[in-house]
Hints:
Radius of gyration: 19 Å
Structural class: alpha+beta
Number of strands: 17
Order of helices and strands: EEHEEEHEEEEHEEHHEEEHEEE
Number of helices: 6
Strand content: 35-45%
Amino acid sequence: MPSDYRILNVFTTPDDLFSGNAVAVFTDAKGLDEETMRRTARQLGTECSFITGRDDEGHATVRFFQPEGASGFAGSASMATAHVVRELDGGEGDIRLAGKKQLIHVIDSGNRWTMLGRSSVIEEIHTEKRFLAGLVGRKIPAIVDPTVKVTFTRSTIVLQLATEQDVREAKIDARLLHQYAMLLHVEPQIYVWAWREDGDVASRMFYGPQGGVLEVAATASGAGRLGEVLVSRGERDKHYRVYQGEDIERPSMIHLDIDADGQVSLGGIVKEVARGQMAI
């Protein structure tokens, strides 16, 4: 039977409807099996959220899939789903989604949705700058110490570069990314960032499915890892705008906040761009 879905962009910039991360939210996915969900996400080539019903507390139960497979937690998809659930329910305020293993709290922040970052383990990576420079296609002076490995459930390389231009011109060597991932016991993904002249952040996030390398338009997990790094450096009571995705023509903006206690939160604007039906 046809299944209704909506396409939403998450972490959009205020003046560009087609910015941010695209997420497809299926509003009534009860009865769909995991294989169908996985193949649907691959067919659409984007993150998908499937609302499968309600739990005993009335929270929407959801499953998240990326084109590469199931995802236990997804910041962009959670925000998109919260946006849809609130409209379906006709309510207001925060939304809680019942994921496969956890209850996901999405905070209503007025003109945007917000989620709390997760605490992490940060370890310095002791690698020569020339190797890191080769990984991102920059010269040695572009590498800012220290480079760190940040671990939530998965580990990611977080690499600060000297300038916004260095971020813009970074070119990831897929072979080196996968070699370093094995050597450092991390996922084949790297988050590169630099301070902008206005005091905000320019960033890019790369990951390596099936031996290659892809770039993400916007990533709450990457910005959350950056937030944890800044907290480890003593940052408190700070607000930053994190700009990402311009290099793949999907500009995005994530609001990164650090409170007085060092709690990181990540927010963004969500906009619906389309509705449709899929024969699944």
